[in-house]
Amino acid sequence: MTFPASAPHGHRVPEGVPPLHLSPRMVLVVAGGALLGTAARYGLAWYRPVTTGEWPWATFTVNAVGTAALGFLLEALARRGDDVGRRRLLRLGVGTGFLGSFTTYSSLAVETDLLVHAHRPGLAAVYGVSSVVVGLLLGLGGIAAAAGHHRWRLARLPVDPDSPDAGGSADENQTQRERREERG
C-alpha cells in the first residue's frame, strides 16, 4: 500500500482512498445528521419563537445543550479508540451533522443584533456573552462527564485473576483500578 508524500498533518491516507469529504457514504452520514439536527432546532424554535426585544430562549437552549452534547460525544469517542468504523460514523453523523446543524451561532449573532435594534443593548450584551460563556462551560462539562463515565466504566471491569494484585486487599485492588485508569 502506498501513501502520498504530501498527506496533511502527518496523516497517511492510502492512495486511491478518497478523503472523507469526498466519500459519498460519509457525506450522506453528515447530511442525514444535519437534516435531523436542523429539524430538531426548527421544532424548538417553532415551539418557543423569538419575541422582539425578549431573550431568545430557543437559540440559547440549543446552543447550550448542543455544546454539552458535543463535548461529551467527542471525549467519549476519543477515549474509546481511534476514529474509525462506528466511532467515525458517530462523530460525523451525530457530531458534525446533527449537533453541527442543531447548534446555531449564526442565529446567536442575528438575535443579538435584533436585541440591539430593539433598543435592548444591555440584554444583547448579556445574551451574547452568556451564550458564549455558558456554551464553553457546558462543553467542558460534557468533556468532564464523558471522562468521569469512562473512569466509572474502567472501575467496574473485573479484576484479572492472573494479575499479581488479584485477591489482594482492598488497597491493592484500588491500586490496580488506578493503574487501569492511567492506561485508559
Automatic annotation (TrEMBL):
Which residues are Na(+)-binding?
A: G100, T103
Q: What switches its activity on or off, per the activity regulation note?
A: Na(+) is not transported, but it plays an essential structural role and its presence is essential for fluoride channel function.
Endpoints of the signal sequence: none
Q: Where is the composition biased (Basic and acidic residues)?
A: 174-184
Which keywords belong to this entry?
Cell membrane, Ion channel, Ion transport, Membrane, Metal-binding, Sodium, Transmembrane, Transmembrane helix, Transport
Kindly give the InterPro entries that the UniProt entry links to this protein. Answer: FluC
| Locations listed in the record | Cell membrane
- UniProt-listed Pfam families: CRCB (PF02537)
Query: What task does this protein carry out?
Result: Fluoride-specific ion channel. Important for reducing fluoride concentration in the cell, thus reducing its toxicity.
Question: What family classification does the UniProt entry report for this protein?
Answer: Belongs to the fluoride channel Fluc/FEX (TC 1.A.43) family.
Report what the protein is called.
Fluoride-specific ion channel FluC
The gene for this chain is fluC
